[in-house]
């Protein structure tokens, strides 16, 4: 009976070996097909923990990158809009200076007022610049129009936003403002640039060129300076976005390298391992075929 038991034992051992080789070969085939060393946590528990940490960090940085891309777009739009606004107010100041020329009649002054009304309309359009339907100069208020002028050119302009600048998260603990809240100063005590323009329009329309070229000119000059400062701040915001975007992009590249190192497959090593296992499997398969399987007659003999 001993030879029969030995054959059974050998057959079972070879069968177990074949199953093990098949399982290992299958796992290596998957690795070679997708290029990933870790298919399941059980493959490398410690490596899995490190990989999950790196992937979480990568996802966070990619979200920051998306935030910065959106924020920089809005910041650039705000910068270009405020630059355009400064140019319009400079034109308005030049028009107002003409009221100080000798021999300005009431008719000429009225014509200058009309020019200022046209410039104010253009300025109002710039002040109501939107991105994706949102007024960019309304702070965090969910409105499509930051400034309204119900009475038309030359009348009061009302600010519909709030004083809280919209921001985006650009890095851990870092929030950058995408735009400025009420950079035209309509909600300030002086009424900002629109109030200065409206007073000049009113005085020119009534023929009061003296007030237009003194107090009105001084008010508009101050408003222009304030607006220029706002445009400068908007330009600085664009630079901040550009600098932080470069840092986050570099961080993403570094973490992606770390993920690749943890997850990436050493093809040469795994290919050699696969070939070795395949050879062993073929040898075991041949040996299993040579083992004489015991029959019922062998037990009864």
Largest sheet entry: 2 strands, antiparallel
Cα gyration radius (Å): 38 Å
Spans of at least 5 consecutive residues whose pLDDT stays below 50 are: none
Could you say what the CATH topology of the largest domain is called? Answer: f41 fragment of flagellin, N-terminal domain
Provide mean pLDDT, rounded.
85
Enumerate the strands of the largest sheet in spatial order, edge to edge or round the barrel.
1-2
CATH architecture heading of the largest domain: Up-down Bundle
Number of helices: 8
Oligomer: single chain
The end-to-end distance, rounded to whole angstroms, is: 9 Å
Shape: rod-shaped
Please name the fourth-level CATH homologous superfamily of the largest domain: f41 fragment of flagellin, N-terminal domain
How many domains make up the 3D coordinates?
2
Protein name: Flagellar hook-associated protein 3
Keywords: Cell projection, Cilium, Flagellum
InterPro entries: Flagellin, Flagellin_N
Domain Flagellin N-terminal: 10-140
Question: How do the strands and helices of this protein lay out in sequence?
Answer:
Elements (H helix, E strand, L loop, with lengths): L1 H33 L10 H53 L8 H22 L2 E2 L2 E2 L11 E2 L9 E2 L7 E5 L2 E4 L14 H14 L3 H4 L2 H49 L3 H24 L5 H5 L1
Antiparallel strand pairs: 1-2, 3-4, 5-6
How is this structure best described in words?
The chain is 68% helix and 6% strand. It has 301 residues and is mainly alpha-helical. The chain has two domains: 2-35 and 265-300; 65-258, f41 fragment of flagellin, N-terminal domain, CATH 1.20.1330. The strands form three sheets. Strands 1-2 form a two-stranded antiparallel sheet. The protein has a two-stranded antiparallel ribbon with strand order 3-4. Strands 5-6 form a two-stranded antiparallel ribbon. Helix 2 packs antiparallel against helix 3 (106-127), helix 3 (106-127) runs antiparallel to helix 4 and helix 4 runs antiparallel to helix 6. It is rod-shaped, with a radius of gyration of 38 Å. The termini are close together. Residues 10-140 form the Flagellin N-terminal domain. It holds the Pfam family Flagellin_N. This is Flagellar hook-associated protein 3. Keywords: Cell projection, Cilium, Flagellum. GO terms for molecular function: structural molecule activity.
